[in-house]
Design goal:
By secondary structure, the protein is an all-alpha fold. It is built from six helices and two strands; from the N terminus they run αααααββα. Helix content is 48%, strand content 3%.
């Protein structure tokens, strides 16, 4: 965006701060799991799944789809369109660089998790538990 308006990234960031717009965190601080000590605390597959805008919701939808007969049933359960769920799972599979479900072409077999999908499901559940656990208060900055 900075290049589009003829500014350096730094100048645009300074301008934003001047107008009270908080800058985006850089590095792992901007990642959904970044506050839990970075990628070394999570399997690479889990870290990749929680990358990008809307990642937590995508992972939650993936976990909700586990155990359903097909994507249509899972989408009905989630009260979203099947195409939306399919798109979210495609994004998740691209970020994981692996197939997560074995899908039946004819719709008669139950879709099942691949080994990578099972690994992601276990790791994602653990990560979501950490994210929902109350955080210990940090050091006070009122000095």
């Amino acid at each position: 965006m900075a290049a589009e308006i003829g500014m350096s990234d730094r100048a645009l960031r300074d301008q934003a701060v001047q107008y009270g717009i908080a800058p985006r965190p850089v590095g792992t601080a901007g990642h959904e799991l970044g506050r839990y000590r970075g990628p070394q605390k999570f399997p690479q597959l889990v870290w990749a799944a929680f990358t990008g805008q809307g990642a937590t919701r995508r992972v939650q939808h993936f976990l909700a789809a586990v155990g359903h007969r097909n994507l249509s049933d899972a989408a009905r359960h989630l009260q979203i369109h099947q195409s939306v769920l399919s798109n979210q799972l495609d994004i998740l599979e691209r970020s994981a660089q692996q197939e997560l479900f074995e899908r039946a072409a004819n719709g008669y077999r139950t879709m099942t998790l691949t080994p990578a999908g099972a690994t992601l499901a276990r790791g994602a559940r653990a990560a979501l538990r950490k994210m929902s656990a109350p955080q210990a208060p940090g050091p006070s900055r009122d000095c």
